[in-house]
Amino acid sequence: MKNLTQEEWRTQLVKDRSAVIIDARTKEECSSGIINKAIMIDFLQPDVFVNEIQKLDKSKNFYVYCRSGNRSGKACAMMDEMGFNETYNLLGGMNEWNSEKTNPI
Questions:
Q1: What's the rounded Cα separation, in Å, for the pair 11 and 5?
Q2: What is the C-alpha separation between 29 and 27, in angstroms, rounded?
Q3: CA 1 → CA 31, 49, 62, 85, 87, distances in Å?
Q4: Please, are residues 65 and 23 in contact by the beta-carbon 8 Å criterion?
Q5: What is the pLDDT of residues 33-66, one digit of tens each?
Q6: What is the pLDDT of residue 35?
Q7: What rounded mean pLDDT belongs to the chain?
Q8: Which domains does the chain have, with CATH numbers?
Q9: Smallest Cα–Cα separation from 93: which of 20, 16, 33?
Q10: Shortest CA distance to 80 belongs to which of 9, 1, 22?
Q11: Neighbouring C-alpha atoms within 13 Å toward the C-beta of 24
């Protein structure tokens, strides 16, 4: 896992053709908007989280965020232990995010 600032996150994400974005917040938290193209997988529902991430292609690079960066850091650590290629945690999470958001689907 690597912790990325918002600036590093945006710069790296634009260049990464193997990127998958995961929003680890609850459904209620996501209702205020998510980062464009993010997959919502609630980390606070451990069985659901593990089940859903096991369906993902481990060879991709995963950019994970939550409200503050705490849950997403734990999610990245879990994914690293499960053999995922690269995981990146957004420092400060959505509390610090000042770029475009989109409404969840």
A1: 10
A2: 5
A3: 27, 18, 9, 9, 5
A4: yes
A5: 999 999 999 999 999 999 999 999 999 999 999 9
A6: 92
A7: 94
A8: 2-96 (3.40.250.10)
A9: 33
A10: 1
A11: 28
- State pTM to two decimals: 0.93
Give Cα 75 to chain centroid, integer Å.
8
How far apart, in whole angstroms, are the C-alpha atoms of residue 84 and residue 88? 11
The amino acid that residue 46 corresponds to is: P
One-letter amino acid for residue 53 of the chain: I
Distance of CA 79 to the CA centre of its chain: 11
C-alpha–C-alpha distance, residues 102 and 37, integer Å: 8
pLDDT exceeding 90 applies to what percent of the chain?
89
Structural tokens at position 49? 């989280």
Residue identified by tokens 């918002």 is 6
Question: In 3-state terms, what secondary structure has residue 11?
Answer: helix
Give Cα 44 to chain centroid, integer Å. 13
Alpha helices in the chain (DSSP H): 6-15, 27-30, 46-53, 70-81, 93-96
- For residue 65, give the nearest of 11, 20, 102, 31 by alpha carbon: 20
